[in-house]
């Protein structure tokens, strides 16, 4: 590319076009009881992952990957990510201080452990993006 050429770079508002809307629609379709159940499930899954992590279980262990299968299915209720997007979601769990803090309140390093497990899951089961 010559120095006089320009490249259009999409702003962050374009990265997940349609994802937020689909997520809002799915959440709006949930009853208050569904939302409460979902929050409890997310918490229980994070606690199980923390147990695997603190026991020294590698992220590619079948038990860990079974949790990621449940995680992926729950994400698909709102949005169906390919491998690249799922890995990006995992990275956002580490990069977003709010989510990282939530994970670290359960067990220090949990966000990174989950991210690493998500990479293994994405590479094994999801179509490349």
Gist of the model:
This protein is mainly α. 67% of the residues lie in helices and 0% in strands.
The overall strand count is 0
Q: By helix and strand content, what is the structural category?
A: mainly alpha
Query: Looking at the chains present, what oligomeric state does this protein adopt?
Result: single chain
Helix and strand sequence: HHHHHH
Would you identify the CATH architecture?
Orthogonal Bundle
The third-level CATH topology is: Globin-like
Outline: globular
How many helices in DSSP terms? Answer: 6
Give a quick account of the main beta sheet: strands, pairing sense, barrel closure.
Answer: none
Radius of gyration: 17 Å
Layout of SSEs?
Elements: H1 19-28, H2 32-54, H3 62-75, H4 83-95, H5 97-106, H6 110-125
What would your notes on this structure say?
With 129 residues, this protein is mostly helical. It has a single domain (17-125), classed as Orthogonal Bundle (Globin-like), CATH 1.10.490. Helix content is 67%, strand content 0%. The protein has helices at 19-28, 32-54, 62-75, 83-95, 97-106, 110-125. Helix 2 runs antiparallel to helix 3, helix 4 (83-95) crosses helix 5 (97-106) and helix 4 packs antiparallel against helix 6 (110-125).
Question: Top keywords for this entry?
Answer:
single chain, 129 residues, mainly alpha, Globin-like, 6 helices, disordered N terminus
């Amino acid at each position: 590319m010559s120095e006089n050429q320009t490249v259009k770079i999409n702003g962050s508002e374009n990265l997940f076009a349609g994802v937020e809307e689909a997520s809002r629609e799915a959440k709006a379709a949930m009853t208050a009881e569904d939302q409460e159940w979902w929050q409890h499930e997310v918490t229980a899954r994070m606690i199980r992952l923390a147990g695997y992590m603190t026991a020294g279980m590698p992220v590619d262990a079948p038990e860990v990957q079974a949790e990621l299968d449940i995680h992926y299915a729950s994400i698909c209720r709102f949005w169906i990510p390919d491998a690249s997007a799922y890995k990006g979601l995992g990275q956002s769990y580490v990069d977003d201080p709010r989510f990282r803090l939530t994970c670290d309140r359960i067990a220090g390093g949990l966000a990174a452990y989950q991210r690493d497990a998500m990479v293994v899951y994405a590479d094994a089961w999801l179509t490349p993006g």
